[in-house]
Design brief:
This protein is mostly helical. It has one domain: Na+/H+ antiporter like fold (Up-down Bundle). The protein is about 80% helix and about 0% strand. The chain has 14 helices and no strands. Helix 1 packs across helix 10, helix 5 runs antiparallel to helix 7 and helix 5 runs parallel beside helix 11. The longest helix is centred in the last third of the chain and has 28 residues. It starts with a helix and ends with a helix.
C-alpha cells in the first residue's frame, strides 16, 4: 500500500496540472497564438534556467556517471535503428513515416525527467537527470532531423544540424551549468536567487501548456498510426528496454532516469519539427496528445512495479 500511495503521489500532480491546462483552454483562456508564444518562451527561457540551476546545484562527483551516459545513448540509437527498419513496413506514406518514427523514439525527457526524479529521490539527486538531458536531448535532435529529412526525400544537412544543436537553449544551459561546476564558479547570490525563483516556473507551466495543447481532432483519421505510437511508446519500448537496464545492473535513480527516457510521452518539440520539415504535423500532434494522456497510467504502473520489486 505504501508503494501504491507513493506512485500516486508522484503521478497525480502531473495529471492534475495537465488537466488544469486543458480546463483553462476549454474556458478560452488560451488561444493557439498564446500557446505558441508561451511554449516558445518556456522552451527558450524557463526550461533552460531550470536545467542550468539543477546542474549548478549538483554534486558532480556524486552524480556524474559516464557509463550511464554511454549506455543510455547506445539504447536510444539502437531503438532508433530498429524503428527505422520497422516503420516503413507498417506505414507507406513518407510524411507519416517521419512523424511516426519520431513519435516512437523521441521522449519528453526534459519536462518529466526532473520532477519525477525529484519526487522519488529528492532535489539532491536531480543532477543525474539534468546531466543526462544534455546528452539525450542532443541525440534526439540529431536523429529526428535525419529521420524527417530521409522520409521527405532529402539528404540530412549535417552543418544545419550542428548549428541547430549549438543554438539549442537546453544544450547551451547544460554546457553553462557543467562549466560552472568544473570551474567551480560561484554566481552572485542575487542572480542565483533570481534563477532559482524563475526556474520553479518551468515544470508547472510546461505541464499546463501541454494540457492546454491537447486536441482530440482527427482521431479517426490517424487512429492506426496513433494506436501504434501509444502502444509502442508507452508500453512496448519500456517493457523491452527496462529489463535490459536491470540486467546491466541499473537501480535506484539511474534506473528511474532510464525509465523516463524510454517511457515518457513524445516530446512536444516533435510537432514543431514536423511542421518545419514538411512531415505530417497533424499526426505528430496527435501522437504527443495521446502518448501524454496514456503516460499518466503507464508511468504509475511502472513506478509501482519497480518499487514493489525494490529496484528503485
Amino acid at each position: 500500500m505504501e508503494n501504491l500511495i507513493l506512485s500516486l503521489n508522484v503521478v497525480l500532480p502531473l495529471f492534475i496540472t495537465m488537466s488544469l491546462g486543458y480546463f483553462l483552454k476549454s474556458l478560452n483562456m488560451f488561444d493557439n497564438n498564446t500557446l505558441d508564444t508561451m511554449n516558445n518562451i518556456t522552451f527558450k527561457s524557463f526550461l533552460p534556467m531550470l536545467l542550468f540551476y539543477s546542474i549548478y546545484k549538483t554534486d558532480l562527483q556524486g552524480v556524474f556517471n559516464l557509463k550511464l551516459m554511454i549506455f543510455s545513448a547506445t539504447c536510444v540509437i539502437a531503438l532508433y535503428l530498429i524503428l527505422y527498419l520497422i516503420v516503413p513496413l507498417i506505414e507507406k506514406d513518407n510524411k507519416k513515416r517521419g512523424a511516426l518514427l519520431q513519435g516512437l523514439f523521441r521522449s519528453n525527457f526534459v519536462i518529466f525527467g526532473i520532477p519525477i526524479t525529484e519526487s522519488l529521490f529528492g532535489s539532491e539527486k536531480v543532477g543525474v537527470a539534468a546531466l543526462l538531458i544534455a546528452v539525450i536531448v542532443t541525440l534526439f535532435n540529431i536523429l529526428s532531423v535525419i529521420a524527417l529529412e530521409t522520409f521527405r526525400g532529402g539528404k540530412p544537412n549535417f552543418r544545419k544540424i550542428s548549428i541547430g544543436i549549438i543554438k539549442n537553449p537546453l544544450i547551451i544551459a547544460s554546457c553553462l551549468g557543467i562549466l560552472t561546476l568544473l570551474l567551480k564558479i560561484k554566481i552572485p547570490t542575487a542572480m542565483e536567487k533570481t534563477i532559482s525563483d524563475v526556474s520553479k516556473i518551468a515544470t508547472p507551466l510546461s505541464l499546463i501548456l501541454l494540457g492546454a495543447s491537447f486536441k482530440f481532432d482527427n482521431i479517426k483519421k490517424y487512429l492506426k498510426q496513433t494506436t501504434i505510437a501509444v502502444v509502442g511508446k508507452t508500453i512496448l519500448t519500456p517493457c523491452i528496454i527496462l529489463p535490459i537496464c536491470i540486467m546491466f545492473g541499473y537501480r535506484g535513480v539511474e534506473l528511474t532516469t532510464l525509465m523516463i527516457i524510454f517511457a515518457a510521452p513524445t516530446a512536444i518539440s516533435s510537432f514543431t519539427m514536423a511542421q518545419q520539415m514538411d512531415s505530417d504535423s497533424d499526426l505528430a500532434g496527435q501522437i504527443v496528445v495521446f502518448t501524454s494522456a496514456f503516460y499518466v497510467v503507464t508511468v504509475f504502473m511502472l513506478i509501482f512495479i519497480l518499487k514493489q520489486s525494490h529496484l528503485i
